[in-house]
Amino acid sequence: MSQDPDCLFCRIAAGDIPATVVARTERVVAFRDVAPQAPLHVLVVPVDHHRDVPALAAADPELLAEVTRTAQQVAQELGDGQFRFVFNTGAGVGQSVFHVHGHVLGGRPMGWPPG
């Protein structure tokens, strides 16, 4: 397993920092966002450290698929199954923790385009 001891999400995945975990597998953890932007706002992260979604896709596409399956499971169990799944890649578009994480957003109507 690859982890960064200075990474917030690695530390949450390891259980070193508390979070409201809503789903967990051996390789993925999902927890509630501390500043929710929708009634359902959960972050889904791999336990292994990958900087962003392109890095994860290149290194371990099956793990990216598991992240996506976990997002769907969370949306089904905590919402009505409808959700937006957002990955920010780069500081300029809002990535503030450089450990890949997908935002599961739902529970209200969402417009397009976002932002």
Automatic annotation (TrEMBL):
Gene3D superfamilies hit by this protein: HIT-like
Domain HIT: from-to ranges: 8-115
Record GO terms (molecular function): catalytic activity
Motif Histidine triad motif per UniProt: ranges: 99-103
Catalytic residue list: H101
InterPro entries for the chain: Histidine_triad_HIT, HIT-like, HIT-like_sf
PANTHER family reported in the protein's UniProt record: HISTIDINE TRIAD HIT PROTEIN
Descriptive protein name: Histidine triad (HIT) family protein
Organism: Quadrisphaera granulorum
